[in-house]
Amino acid sequence: MLLEDRNAVVYGAGGSVGRAVALAFAREGARIFLAGRTRAALDAVAEEVSAGGGSVQTAEVDTLDQAAVDAHADAVVRDVGGIDVSFNAVSHGDVHGPPLLEMPYQDFARPITVATRALFLTARAGARHMVKRGSGVIMAITASTSHQTLPEVGGTAVAFDAIESQCRQWATELGPHGVRVLWLQTTGLPEALADVDLFPGYGTGAPMTKADFLEWTRGKTMLKRLTTLDELGNAAAFAASDRAGAMTACAVNLTCGAVPG
């Protein structure tokens, strides 16, 4: 197994991306520490991990709270001796639809400030322990939005750009200590859109139904399909493993060709 006896913390673990990553890490032998704000969602993922034979613990953690993030990381280390993988899948509170001319500043800024703060605090909390052991992997997630020119996405593209830039800086500072930092870059994730029925036009001129949106998004890829959650989880597990030991300061490109490498 790729991650046997590794300790992996997944932040935002109650969401669809966090769930997919946690299940993939567990299948590859990692001990899973689920962190997030909603106990019920965390418990649901924990039940799936346990049903598959995985070792899992949950904790309510607000990733915007510095003291809470640090305390949780310290508790994990006291319990199992170290953190090998830290994956940030925290949602950002994005607002899509209104053009920037009509968007309140707080709606534009929210995903940027949430994304940068959550990544900084979780990365730093894990890295402080990783550098002492001379190894570790810190991971985040972005999407093709950061490399496309799309209207009506509010602060989403800027937030993804900020995540990628911050990951590069962490990578250059932590690399000499044996710690790798990278991000998974996806298309839209259809399985994560289950509760959304109507989408903005994104410059097409009219709002789109879910079916229209998926067809339009697929059309922007070379493979004419979108990233699945299973593919995301499997790629995360590989990137976190020693088999990807030479990878840092880069994207794991899962955009189906929407963003050429």
* Range of helix content: 40-55%
Strand order of the largest sheet: 3-2-1-4-5-6-9
The dominant shape is globular
Radius of gyration: 18 Å
CATH architecture: 3-Layer(aba) Sandwich
- Please describe the biggest sheet, giving its number of strands, its sense, and whether it closes into a barrel: 7 strands, parallel
What ranges have pLDDT less than 50 throughout 5 or more consecutive residues?
A: none
* Beta-strand share of residues: 15-25%
How would you describe the overall organization of this protein?
Helices cover 42% and strands 17% of the residues. It has seven helices and nine strands. The protein is globular and about 55 Å long. It has 261 residues and is of the alpha/beta class. 44% of the residues are buried. The strands form two sheets. It has a seven-stranded parallel β-sheet, sandwiched between helices. The longest helix is centred in the middle third of the chain and has 29 residues, at 105-133. The protein has a single domain, classed as Rossmann fold (3-Layer(aba) Sandwich). Helix 1 (16-27) packs across helix 7 (229-240) and helix 4 runs parallel beside helix 5. Strand 7 and strand 8 (208-209) form a beta hairpin.
Task: Tell me the layout of helices and strands.
Elements: E1 7-11, H1 16-27, E2 31-36, H2 39-51, E3 56-60, H3 66-80, E4 85-88, H4 105-133, E5 136-143, H5 156-174, E6 179-186, E7 198-199, E8 208-209, H6 210-218, H7 229-240, E9 250-254
Parallel strand pairs: 1-2, 1-4, 2-3, 4-5, 5-6, 6-9
Antiparallel strand pairs: 7-8
Keywords:
261 residues, alpha/beta, Rossmann fold, seven-stranded parallel β-sheet, 7 helices, globular
